[in-house]
């Protein structure tokens, strides 16, 4: 995931303050619509309020990234689209310069994530689609990892269960299109510890292993089940 493009220091990069064309207020601060070229050659065109980017605007970074959206006191805040140098793109909500709220991220490899964000990371309910296989994960996320209840949906079957630290773990079931489901659970199996050198303790590599249980017909939820 890309996070290129910092807008910090518009007025703090030395004596040269760039160029500006546009409105000013009675204090000679940038105010209203304006167009600026920053000392680092980034450009901004949009609304200002009392010297700060505020409202709708377009910010173009010298590295090729660009942001089209809303600002609040120089920070990306509200709805906006950020196109990163590698071609990936985020469209959605921003809070205090961070991806936060609901948004869609299109990755350079064709994968997409659409759902909730917090502090620049996938967090909350969301759907991640893997372009190479068409597989989808629909469920909960925590700090960028699959965490909590979710469904991993493949072409002709799906796994329904709990995820922990980005891996399926504990009780769950595989539901097949042919009309049956296999119950079971993922058991954590500790592999050989990874040696990280003399200064760090080797870390355990936990791999989930499926322990198959009973196969039954698909159980469709009834009104009674919904009420329980």
From TrEMBL:
GO terms for cellular component: motile cilium; nucleus. It comes from the Eukaryota. SUPFAM superfamilies: Histone H3 K4-specific methyltransferase SET7/9 N-terminal domain. Residues 1-13 have a biased composition (Acidic residues). Residues 21-31 have a biased composition (Basic and acidic residues). Keywords: Cell projection, Cilium, Cytoplasm, Cytoskeleton, Flagellum, Meiosis, Repeat. Transmembrane segments: none annotated. It is found in: Cytoplasm, Cytoskeleton, Flagellum axoneme. Residues 1-40 are annotated as: Disordered. GO terms for biological process: axoneme assembly; meiotic cell cycle; spermatid development. Its main location: cytoplasm. Functions as part of axonemal radial spoke complexes that play an important part in the motility of sperm and cilia. This is Radial spoke head 1 homolog. It comes from Magallana gigas.
């Amino acid at each position: 995931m890309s996070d290129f493009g910092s807008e910090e220091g518009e007025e703090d990069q030395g004596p040269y303050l760039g160029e500006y064309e546009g409105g000013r207020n009675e204090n000679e601060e940038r105010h209203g619509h304006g167009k600026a070229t920053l000392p680092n050659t980034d450009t901004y065109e949009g609304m200002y309020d009392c010297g700060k980017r505020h409202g709708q605007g377009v910010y173009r970074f010298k590295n090729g990234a660009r942001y089209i959206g809303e600002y609040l006191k120089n920070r990306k805040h509200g709805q906006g689209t950020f196109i990163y140098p590698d071609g990936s793109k985020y469209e959605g909500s921003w809070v205090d310069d961070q991806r936060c709220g609901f948004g869609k991220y299109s990755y350079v490899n064709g994968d997409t994530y659409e759902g909730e964000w917090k502090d620049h990371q996938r967090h909350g309910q969301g759907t991640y689609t893997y372009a190479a296989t068409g597989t989808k994960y629909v469920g909960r996320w925590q700090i960028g990892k699959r965490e909590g209840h979710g469904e991993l949906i493949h072409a002709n079957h799906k796994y329904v269960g709990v995820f922990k630290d980005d891996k399926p773990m504990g009780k769950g079931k595989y539901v097949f299109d042919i009309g049956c489901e296999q119950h079971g659970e993922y058991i954590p199996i500790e592999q050989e510890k990874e040696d990280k050198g003399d200064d760090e303790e080797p870390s355990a590599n936990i791999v989930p292993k499926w322990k198959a249980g009973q196969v039954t017909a698909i159980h469709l939820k009834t009104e009674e089940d919904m009420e329980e």
